[in-house]
Amino acid sequence: MNGRWEFWIDRGGTFTDILARAPDGRVTAKKLLSESPDYADAASEGVRRLLGLKTGDAIPPDTVTAVKMGTTVATNALLERKGAPTVFVVTEGFGDLLVIGDQTRPDIFAMQIDRPEPLHSRVLEVDERADGDGAVVKPLDEKAALAGLEAAWDAGCRTAAIACLHAYVQPAHEQRLAELAREAGFETVVMSNEASPLVKIVPRASTTVLDAYLTPVLRDYAGRVAARLDGAPLFFMQSSGGLTAAERFAARDAVLSGPAGGVVGMAKTARAAGFPKAIGFDMGGTSTDVSRYDGARYERVSEARIAEQRLRAPMMAVHTVAAGGGSVLQFDGERARVGPDSAGAMPGPAGYGRGGPATVTDANIVLGRIQPQDFPHVFGETSDGPLDVEASRAALAKLADAMGLGSPEAAAEGFLAVAIENMAQAIKQISIGQGVDPGGYALSSFGGAGGQHACKVAEALGMTTVLVHPFAGLLSALGIGLAELRETREAAIESAFDTALDDARARADELAHEARSALVRQGADGQGVRITTEARVKVAGSDTALPVAFAGAESMRSDFARAHSQLFGFTPGDAQLMIESVAAEAEADPPGAGGWSLALPDTMGDPEPRRSTQVFSGGGWRSTPVFSLDDFGPGARCAGPALITEPNSTLVIEEGWKAERLTDGMLVLTRQAAAGKEAGSTELDPVRLELFNKRFMSVAEQMGTALERTAHSVNIKERLDFSCAVFDADGGLVANAPHMPVHLGSMSASVKAAAAAHPDLGPGDAVAVNAPYDGGTHLPDITIVVPVFDDASGQRLFWVAARGHHADVGGIAPGSMPPFSTTIDEEGVLFRNIKVMAGGQFLDRAVRDVLGSGAYPARNPDQNVADMKAQLAACAKGAAELGRMVCDHGLDVVRAYMGHVQDNAERAVRRVIDALKDGEAVARLEDGAEIRVRITVNRDARTARVDFTGTSLQRRSNFNAPSSVAR
């Protein structure tokens, strides 16, 4: 153990968490406000205080081995749009590239589409061009480029982001433009061939602009921190989960700096406690972050949208939902809803005593799950009072009255159930959505509000273990301290696997050498550097590349097939493979890395409760022991129900769970008994209405995930042109995932048409529909309709359906959307309620007969069949989930709440109609036809009549809409 201090710091937007490892290895903690008039910088101030120095004192030389930091400085600058004025330098003709983007809409149902403002303030189009092979098509006009850069400087731009077409294979023009930019006065110049040296101009250019926009802000902050640390080695946490020296910290790698530390901390502490597979549950005041570690490697993504900006860089896969302790509780007249609005820090929850709204925190206060005496007196208008229980009760009482409930406790318990469901659904997306059963993982709970909800979230997911580290409230800082130095290098290949493997391997080795050298320059021991190289392999024609470690060709093929099967549910067979890119990662322990320990109580045996209190659970008050974490020595245990308190947070041990402290301080909660079956009632209840609304929607979302994973075509698997939904026994829509609006409005007609055509459908049967006469949209949209039966009685209970846009179903033009078709046959083959599965057996011959029928048959029937089987798999998933719901809640309850959800939707639409005005409009089409519509609102009945009288008759062209779409 070396004789100096090391500091691990997570600088958040509100608080800065500091952990100090003393020369003897003991770790202590400090939490400070990130911004305060009492000191210049929270990081250096925390170092001083933990060293026993006063504000402003110099930090003695050679006292500190290293300072390791994560920071939200870049993220906050991005959110607040406080970056540097940037000029975007791009190939001529592509100046609006980032304004157009890829047309992705964050809210596909939004009628008013607000485009995000670009980060750059000026565009300079330069006369140059290279082709996809790197050959220069048009030389760079250097004189014009320099003049444009000088004009941008004079206009106030101070950073330059350069992105030329195909610069990932031919960087010479970008390199020369960078030289010219520096001649013009620019100090910060970012080239796309360095920021993101991979194919696809939109994410490459967007990443380059973001990097240039934020780099001055980040450099300024890092420089100020380094100056105050008086030469101590300073490292920053990257979004990928690795540390880098301050002078190498790039803005593109900084936006998930803090959350990445949490993932590393979660994974390393769980593994140390004997739980190699863990799901992170980081619940704070405004949001909850969830993540997954499979025991071998971190789950990472290479691309994400941050603050509406597309970023391509290695980063931890962290899924965020707007559900935190400050999430506002709302009752819309029918449904009890939690979030997405948050009370924030000011005014905060009602219980903070500053006039805030009812929140999840208030629900916990009312239920007794949060004890005011265990929290510091920092609340109220003067910030020196306790939590205000009466304010929380008053806020919940108001909601209880509106909901027709008898007490604020009943309302609080209901809202808490909704919050738990929200968080459980988020975890399902990163586990079940990736083909992983969360039941095989431990739930690592951290963040200020995680401990109050962890047991119930675990129960909702079938998990039996919850981990709570003693530094659960500072786990991001701990992860930053435990992280390794990491350097990643990438390069585009874009060549066939069979012919490019040797060259790709050689390129990866070159990248590995670069990454190793970069770590050595940061002080790492060259002998201790660990290298991994991989190829990103994909099926030809696909956009989804999977990482495969370099090995022999056949071994790599097998590894790819295995990864492909896990993610998508099928192997690629003999499909041609491509190497999209290669990557090398170098990892090493940072200078001065060593062990650490935590001081634990030396008490023996199980602790005695400090007191008992009343906690509301299961509809009534229960006497509940309250323990202090300070009384738990190694091996100490307690059984639920119980509360375990520590400064600033409370851990709720639910009934049926027990807690035990390990020798490293980790608290392990183990589920001893399964949660009881939910008591069923068919009566309308606002809390259960919201719960079932989310559960039905979750079924449709899981269907969509299954379809995306198992589909073969790019249209469905990557363009996501599909929709899944759940229907009642009569074919009425109950719930859908947020998929394609035009699909969802017409699918019910297809379900009803299939039911009418096949009244004798049995278990294991399925029908395909694409005809516009039967609820279809256009012919490429094929709907698979599946009835759901009761296993015991054989009674048909529900329907599920999956509609997908097939790449081709025949017709006079590839893609089956010919612009000049005059008959339906010219657009492709018709599935008019064709049975495609009987008794669980796919009717391959019958399906292929339809695909091969007519004058213009389908061009790739094998792909059609594969996608239909994927749709059937999605429907099977939906049927299984509905069956599980019936088992958990009872058929009568599920049926009743299907009706309640539909009734709620109808009333919601009627409320909107009541706010509409009469109107009429005429739209003239290119062929001279007119669409006339008149809308008349009856406010008494809250109905609207949509009258198309005067609209042109059906055209002898493809300017006709099916009735199911027009309705």
Brief write-up:
With 967 residues, this protein is of the alpha+beta class.
List keywords for this structure.
23 helices; 967 residues; 7-stranded antiparallel beta sheet; globular; 8-stranded mixed beta sheet; alpha+beta
Structural class: alpha+beta
Radius of gyration of CA atoms, rounded to a whole number: 30 Å
Average predicted local confidence, pLDDT: 89
Task: Supply the number of helical segments.
Answer: 23
Oligomeric composition of the shown chains: single chain
Q: How would the global form be characterised?
A: globular
What is the terminal separation in angstroms?
Answer: 74 Å
Strand residue content:
25-35%
Biggest sheet: strand arrangement: 17-14-13-20-21-32-31-28
What does the largest sheet look like?
A: 8 strands, mixed
Q: Determine the fraction of residues in helical runs and give it as a percent range.
A: 25-40%
Q: How many E strands?
A: 42
The residue ranges in which pLDDT falls below 50 over 5 or more consecutive positions are none
Question: Could you please describe the fold and organization of this structure?
Answer:
With 967 residues, the chain is α+β, with helices and mostly antiparallel strands. Among the domains are: 83-104 and 115-213; 486-588, no CATH class; 611-662, no CATH class; 686-897, no CATH class; 919-966, no CATH class. An 8-stranded mixed β-sheet has the order 17-14-13-20-21-32-31-28, with helices on both faces. It has a 7-stranded antiparallel β-sheet with strand order 34-33-37-36-35-38-39, with helices on both faces. Helix 4 (142-154) crosses helix 5 (172-183). The chain is globular. The model has no long low-confidence stretch (mean pLDDT 89).
